[in-house]
Design goal:
Elements: H1 10-22, H2 34-47, H3 52-65, H4 76-85, H5 90-98, H6 102-111, H7 113-124, H8 140-147
Length: 148
Amino acid sequence: MVEDDQPPIASTKMLYNRVGTSSEPIWPGSNESKLSMVFELIHLKAQYQVPNTCYDDLCRIMQRLMPEDNVMSKNIYETKNLVHDMGSSNREAYKKMYYFTLTHRLQRLYASKVTAKHMRWHAEHQTDEVDLMCHPSDSLAWITLSRV
């Protein structure tokens, strides 16, 4: 049984500290937190494929517009460190997404009726014209191979 008054474990305590410092306002009196602004900027960077140098320039412009006592990230390096410290690493998500085995990828494609229909199209499509080749599966070699 876990008691309510037990202190959190070290890793949880570290995460609470990071979230606490990141959720402070960008400057005294601001309604926006550093964390919310950084995630919003990262979202825009990904959505519009903004290069790192452009992101750094944008951060520089934002620094000039904000009061001097702001805590906003000054460049992409600080932003990535903040996101990495929060425990969400883009590299890990990338690895998980692109290193599925072929079996898992095919299972995901055939799970949806829409994509499964496209995956089976080469075997199920019918051509009205005999001499018209719309797909390599219409070729004589493919048809012969399918019969074997």
